[in-house]
Amino acid sequence: MKSFGSWGVVVFFFTVYLGICPSLKGFAQSTPQAYIVLGESTDLGTGATPGNDWVSMFHEFLRTEQGFNSIELRNYSVFGATMGDIRRDQLAPALSDIASFNSVVLSIGGGGNDLSNFIRSPQGVTCRMANIQLCVNRLNALLNNVEALLDQMVRRLRAAAGPNDVILLRTEFNPFLKQDCDNPPGISQLANLALEGSNNVPFLTRGLNDRIRDVAARYDAKVIEIFKELRTIQTNLSLLTVSMPMMPGMR
């Protein structure tokens, strides 16, 4: 069985691989600097031992390897937060921090709880049982709203931070793939469809993660890929229970 530390290293490695290059002004100034985090339980570190969650590891990486020697960690993530919750409760303090610090790195994770709430709802049951067209329509409406909220947040964060500071958007993974979560039939497939879309399903070619990548491209943000990388190591799914112990939800 792998520890959360191993999972964190996977995320950490691909974060670095995707080109995390802090603003040059971060090297020139010793203070004030901040790593600002908006998100849900994955970003909060739910289930991880202190210091072994990915946010803490990345904060340490910025401090020791990227020249942000005195960078502060401002983590506003909340267990169970939906994208609407993040916009309502976490955006304002993040914008305030941007105004207060000379140089910032920002990361945003979200949307997983929006999907999880839908998939486990009576509407989600309908999707799995019969009417695929109705299911696609409802999923698209949900995803359109999540994308619009994320776009609004990233647009405001980019405008406040300027063109040089780094913004990171994290994709979501599928916790329903955990084999011993006693999930209803079809739920993991529905979650995969909602996350990554499918060219074989009319009108749902763009899932949540596609939309996150599109928003990142609009505002020159970097993408931290979790879905794709964790899918390649699904033969050892036990590691997911450590980062998400409340299975099968994505709180």
Structure explained in plain terms:
The protein has 251 residues and is of the alpha/beta class. It has helices spanning 4-17, 24-28, 41-44, 54-65, 83-89, 91-100, 112-119, 122-129, 132-161, 187-196, 208-218, 227-231, 240-243, and strands at 33-38, 72-75, 103-109, 166-170, 222-224. The protein has a single domain (4-243), classed as SGNH hydrolase (Rossmann fold, 3-Layer(aba) Sandwich). Strands 2-1-3-4-5 form a five-stranded parallel beta sheet, sandwiched between helices. α6 (91-100) runs parallel beside α9 and α9 (132-161) runs parallel beside α11. It is elongated and about 55 Å long.
Entry summary:
This protein has 251 residues and is α/β, with parallel strands linked by helices. Helix content is 51%, strand content 10%.
Task: Compile the SSE list and pairings.
Layout: H1 4-17, H2 24-28, E1 33-38, H3 41-44, H4 54-65, E2 72-75, H5 83-89, H6 91-100, E3 103-109, H7 112-119, H8 122-129, H9 132-161, E4 166-170, H10 187-196, H11 208-218, E5 222-224, H12 227-231, H13 240-243
Parallel strand pairs: 1-2, 1-3, 3-4, 4-5
CATH topology: Rossmann fold
**Strand order across the largest sheet:** 2-1-3-4-5
Shape: elongated
**CA-atom Rg in angstroms:** 18 Å
Top CATH class: Alpha Beta
Number of H- or I-type helical stretches? 13
The residue-averaged pLDDT reads: 77
Q: Mind describing the biggest β-sheet?
A: 5 strands, parallel
Please tell me the total number of domains: 1
Structural class: alpha/beta
What's the number of extended β-strand segments? 5
| Share in helix | 40-55%
**Regarding quaternary structure, how should these chains be classified?**
single chain
Quickly give the CATH architecture. Answer: 3-Layer(aba) Sandwich
